[in-house]
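How a chain folds remains the central question behind the approach discussed here. In the encoding step, the backbone of a single protein was reduced to a row of integers, each denoting a local shape. We regard such an encoding as a compact summary of how the chain folds. The sequence in question and its structure tokens are set out directly beneath this paragraph:

___
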Amino acid sequence: MTDEPRDEPLEPQVDADYRNDNPPESSSEGGLILASNLLPRRLPIIPLRPRPAFPAALIPLAANGPEQILAFDHAHEHNNDTVGLIMARDFESEDSPDNLYQVGVAAKVVKVIHRDENTAHFLVNTLERFRTERLTETQRGLVAEVVYHNSAELSDTPELKAYSMAIISTLKELVQTNPLYSEEIKLFLNRSSMDDPGRLADFAANLTSADGPELQRILETFDVRRRIDLVLVLLKKELEVSRLQTKINRQIEEEISEHQREFFLREQLKAIKKELGLEKEGKTAELEKFQQRLAELKLNEEAQRAVDDELEKLQLIEPSAPEYNVSRNYLDWLTILPWGKFSKDSFRLDRARRVLDRDHYGLQDVKERILEFIAVGKLKGDISGSIICLVGPPGVGKTSVGKSIAAALNRKFFRFSLGGMRDEAEIKGHRRTYIGAMPGKFIQAMKSAGTANPVLMLDEIDKIGASFQGDPASALLEVLDSEQNHAFRDHYLDVPFDLSNVLFVATANQLDTIPAPLLDRMEIIRLSGYILEEKLEIAKRYLIPKALTDHGLDKKQIVIRKAALRAIIDGYAREAGVRNLENRIKKLMRKAAMAFAEGRKSQVVIDKKDIVEYLGKPVFTADDIFKRTPGVVTGLAWTSMGGVTLQIEATAMPSQGKGFKQTGQLGKVMIESSQIAYSYIMAHLDDYQVETDYFDKHFVHLHVPAGATPKDGPSAGITMTTALLSMILKRPVIDKLGMTGELTLTGRVLPIGGIKEKTIAARRSGLKTLIFPHDNKDSFDELPDHLKDGLTAHFVKTYDDVFKIAFEK
């Protein structure tokens, strides 16, 4: 640093910070002087990050900031270019005495590499370890009073020689895994000897990639034997890391080499095939694929023109262009649709009848409607423009009927659900300007079906929704209109596609939520549900064999008695469909499967007495309906789940004034029916020999269980009236009686709907006597005989007729 300009001392006391109170002692007799006596006791401190420095090393050092540069200057002026190097504890914190370790090394500046106002780079030679006795912060930086720890010559000790040889042996292994270590070892040999174990340990530690705290621990270990132990551990870790790194590099190089080899071979093979004319470019292959598809199709004029234009456009676009994939996907959709492909219809009525009887038990009226439909198609030559809507509660077989229709006609079948659909684009597709655009559900269904005349089932059409994105139900109008669907234009295709040959079969649980214009386009076929006898046959023919197969059992392993099936249907599965019955049968199969899996060998026989053990207590009991109580009357209702029975209850409490309350989540129409019943009874108390001031002294409460289920409709009028009258007279109605009908204020009984569903519900619940409006007699007479057997039906015109039947007058 002699060639660098020097600053004059700022203050005398600052120079005193660097003045050495113990000058080096000389020997008047010419003896040796220890290195510690030549090194200053007071040193300017330079903090190090992120590793400490070790003795006997030549390292570059950077001074950051004016304070560290001043420290180097004053070290040159007062300390013979000697500074102290100590590692900082926290690399993010500022330089302070508390943030430095106590052990560091003294270093002598050998060369100034670069210097400006704020930074300087030096080459320093590290000398000896020291421990700080006092570390202070001055105006010119950190200053420490230190005590040196010199490493003695210990190479004559056989044990330390062995340790040194262990370090040397590990270093040789490191050089084999990483040749970069050999350069470091050569530099060390030029400046030190392998015979000094302490220096060798310091060099080996400095060679590793250990973190700062680990290296600081070795620096603070003054005992050479202990230091070598620590260094050997670090070297072994470094050796394992180096071996792992070498292994990873080798694997990567092998993979890269293999990929490069494959790439070169493929490129050579491609060039050879191209030269021999054995391989075409990707775009050429795509164009030929589209041409081959088009040869088998019969496109309409507009679609053919669009395909030709798109093919010409595709030839001019480079495969790397973004428009290429858009054009390619469009052509892929246009050429994969079944333009002009038809499956041959089968109009054989005997075959259709066998298919329907094979797949379904009962539903005779539904089967007759389907056979009539096929017969018309036979005479007409096709059944184009037909849209069937199967309406019924869940589990009655609407979807399976649609499959049977497809099988009877020998057509492809495809089903998709409209439930919850809220976006018009689901029906008519997205425009090609959008990223990820696709055709709508109907074009996708035609692609999947592979023919232009499949049977498409539109499931849950009554649950289609609407949102700000459009009204899918309105979009369906074009699809299901025979006058329009011959030229259905999907937004994505933007060319007309003929849907007029498709047989659409929709399913719904109710018709109330279907828009009237959409409902007008469909032919309604109702599936009302099953009675107990029909469920028995369905269970024996379809449900039990299917459950045996699904659970890995055979009919020899488990037997379900007829009485047990009756008990399941009557006590656990009274709904209109058979889905709950199927679930109960599956539960029996799981119980049996567990028994056989645990080692049972004998046959499982399930009788009526075993049902409670397998399925728990029954959900329905006969006492629910057949318990005769004044003020309680059984009504018949129709819901989206099929026909049901409702018990209407009435009670009265003594009161100083009249009052009337209804509970049971009744809808507006049903509340009005209850008010009509209340008014009718109040106006005719004399006719039934009741005190005319009865309602003035009583508060009346009418309840329709279950309270958590919403209910509405006008058909409970006569039932509510009978319940109020039974309460007032304190007389129960006749046994096993059910009734339905709308009542007017003048006592007339008006017709209602759902006669078949309500009759099925009555049979299912065990009712024997039914009261219907007189105008519904024709509907009842049209019911199959097996539904009417065992039932006594009365048809009434006024409430007086109801009263005479209900109370046996």
Q: What stands out?
A: Confidence is low (pLDDT under 50) at residues 1-36. The longest strand covers residues 119-138. The chain has 29 helices and 24 strands.
